[in-house]
Amino acid sequence: MANKPVLSSEQEQGRAKNAVADLLSRQLIVPKVFFDAHWPSRKSRVDVLAVDRSGSGEVHVVEVKRWRDLKVDLIERLLEIPAHFRYLALFDNPKNSRPRSDMLYSSDGIGRIGIIEVTEDPLGNLDARISVQPERFKLDSSVYKMVDRFTANYPANLEVRP
Amino acid sequence: MKLLNNDSGDLRYGVGLLAVHSAISLSDAISVGLTGDRGKYQDHTQAARELKRLCASNKVSDVQGIRHFEWLLGRKNAIAYEDRRFGDDSMRLAVEKAERFNVWAYNHFKEILRGE
Asked: For residue B103, what are the domain limits?
């Protein structure tokens, strides 16, 4: 078995973000994917943002965290971020722990944060899979104006070229 | 189509057809959005010509994406009816062409396809 390399915290998180981006690229239709995206404003940041259908579709945001670094306020913040689908991706989580399920729901009942588990096999390959399916949050169509501004200002990190 | 693409094998003809028909459906959606009519074609290559015409009348000058659609339409019968071998490479290329046509369509007909 190969020795496990010692990676920095930033490298570990970067690998997890990459695995999440790969998962979203497979699940969505020609999405534009952004790492460390300033969404919904320049002052805020989400770990992974994916906009379905080449930037014209629904918005997916993911916060990627080690289980031991997960704080309640991150979940509360995720509930406030404008996105149709919101996820918490957990890595370095050997016991497959999850936040309390009631914390994942929107206060109006429309929308639930999904959980993505990022795991590593003995050869060091990462796999991201959805363990709690997200439910769509209620947003009005003004989010598409925000998306259009965002995609006009920031190049995607992953996308299919026309 | 994309999810099946990783496990080709016996499914490759099905994946190829999904690629072709997803592109035809997207072209139909653009046509319905712009004209209210899906168009009826004896020959699907007419759909690509009609899409070019719609681009011209809606001042869309970039029609490069339509070449991916034409590529897919040109192989529709071969995938569906002919005995010629349709290998994994051809299947992956068909999926890539369908995805690239999708990107072009969503970039140029965003409002129509969003239903705004």
From this structure: 2-114
What ranges do the domains of chain A cover? 9-153
**Complex ipTM:** 0.83
Of all residues in chain B, the one with the smallest CA distance to A141 is B116
pLDDT at B3: 63
Closest to B104 measured CA to CA, from B78, B76, B74, B71: B71
Give the gap in angstroms from C-alpha B25 to the nearest C-alpha of chain A.
Answer: 14
Angstrom distance (rounded) from CA A14 to CA A12: 5
Condensed to tens digits (0 to 9), the pLDDT of residues A89-108 reads 999 998 889 999 999 999 99
Answer yes or no: CATH 3.40.1350 is held by domain A9-153.
yes
Q: Which pLDDT score is estimated for A28?
A: 97
Give the amino acid at A24.
L
Taking residue B85's Cβ as centre, other Cβ atoms within 10 Å add up to 7
* Neighboring chain B residues of A148 at a CB cutoff of 8 Å: 110
Domain count across chain B: 1
Residues B14-35 have pLDDT tens digits of: 899 999 999 999 999 999 999 9
Q: Tell me whether residues A55 and B106 touch, CB distance under 8 A.
A: yes
How far apart are the C-alpha atoms of B26 and B80, rounded to whole Å?
19
Instruction: State the average pLDDT over residues B88-107.
Output: 94
